[in-house]
UniProtKB/TrEMBL annotation:
<dbReference type="InterPro" id="IPR029058">
    <property type="entry name" value="AB_hydrolase_fold"/>
</dbReference>
<dbReference type="InterPro" id="IPR019819">
    <property type="entry name" value="Carboxylesterase_B_CS"/>
</dbReference>
<comment type="similarity">
    <text>Belongs to the type-B carboxylesterase/lipase family.</text>
</comment>
<dbReference type="InterPro" id="IPR002018">
    <property type="entry name" value="CarbesteraseB"/>
</dbReference>
<protein>
    <submittedName>
        <fullName>Neuroligin-2</fullName>
    </submittedName>
</protein>
<feature type="region of interest" description="Disordered">
    <location>
        <begin position="256"/>
        <end position="279"/>
    </location>
</feature>
<keyword id="KW-0732">Signal</keyword>
<dbReference type="InterPro" id="IPR051093">
    <property type="entry name" value="Neuroligin/BSAL"/>
</dbReference>
<feature type="domain" description="Carboxylesterase type B">
    <location>
        <begin position="58"/>
        <end position="237"/>
    </location>
</feature>
<dbReference type="Pfam" id="PF00135">
    <property type="entry name" value="COesterase"/>
</dbReference>
């Protein structure tokens, strides 16, 4: 006869009745314990299946490479509305192995919904003792302990973007929409349905820094612009070539595709020099 297959906890209960498990307790207690384990497992499975991701808190957008699941952040502000964040979005293939010192290549597509609710690793760097403080920006040297917290997770696979998208349900946006209906007024970026894209390139003398340090939620909500921060290779791994022309499209995907193709590139010194290379 073929053996009967039971789920693991139930199988243990069956085996205990046959004497294959050590009987350190009375059989009735062992059987009760097994049955309780089975019921507990069923309860856990039912709870896991019932916990669905709330689409209002975790919006999903479609990009040119696949779907992204972000997170909607409430700024707890009477004026500024919530902002959708899409963190750790790849804008290039991982520059590792044979690609280590090569120009970046377009990222590969993905089939499943990609989780974009956490920051990706930062590019390899060392905050302490690499450069004189005079070569580092003041905000960096005054907050070395804070900066060190952002660079704990490092990897050569670090070419990722963070995208901050304003929502249309903020009080500031509604206020401007109402005023534009009542009377003519000068053009304002908050009146546009097609939002511009701002790319921010961090500084750090090409040796330190990460776009993860800059939470652009307030800027995105107040200016009603899509703000993109980024990581790029540093130190000996640095390349002055990047597919930055496609960054907005990669970052926003269909979000950016529906909007008017206009934007700005900004950054700190020497990020201004980096911007010139990226352009």
């Amino acid at each position: 006869m073929n053996p009967v297959m039971y789920p693991l906890p139930l199988a243990l209960c069956k085996q205990s009745r046959r004497g294959l498990l050590p009987r350190t307790r009375p059989l009735s207690l062992m059987t009760d314990w097994c049955l309780m384990g089975v019921l507990g497992l069923i309860l856990l499975l039912s709870l896991a299946s019932s916990q669905k991701i709330d689409p209002s808190k975790h919006p999903i957008v479609t990009t040119n490479y696949g779907k992204l699941r972000g997170i909607k952040k409430d700024l707890n502000n009477e004026i500024l509305g919530p902002v959708e964040q899409y963190l750790g979005v790849p804008y290039a293939t991982a520059p590792i192995g044979d690609r280590r010192f090569q120009p970046p290549e377009a990222p590969g597509s993905w089939q499943e919904i990609r989780n974009a609710t956490q920051f990706a690793p930062v590019c390899p760097q060392n905050v302490h003792g690499v450069l004189p403080e005079i070569m580092l920006p003041v905000w960096f040297t005054d907050n070395l302990d804070v900066a060190a917290g952002y660079i704990q997770n490092q990897s050569e696979d670090c070419l990722y973007l963070n995208v901050y998208v304003p929502t249309e349900d903020g009080p500031l946006t509604k206020k401007h929409d109402e005023s534009s209906m009542n009377k003519p007024r000068d053009e304002d970026i908050r009146d546009r349905r097609k939002k511009p894209v701002m790319l921010f390139i961090h500084g750090g003398s090409y040796m330190e820094g990460t776009g993860n340090m800059f939470d652009a939620s307030v800027l995105a909500a107040y200016g009603n612009v899509i703000v993109v921060t980024m990581n790029y290779r540093l130190g000996v791994l640095d390349r002055r070539v990047s597919p930055a022309a496609d960054l907005a499209e990669v970052a926003a995907g269909e979000e950016g595709g529906r909007r008017k193709k206009q934007g700005a590139v900004s950054g700190e010194v020497p990020a201004g020099n980096s911007a010139a290379f990226h352009m």
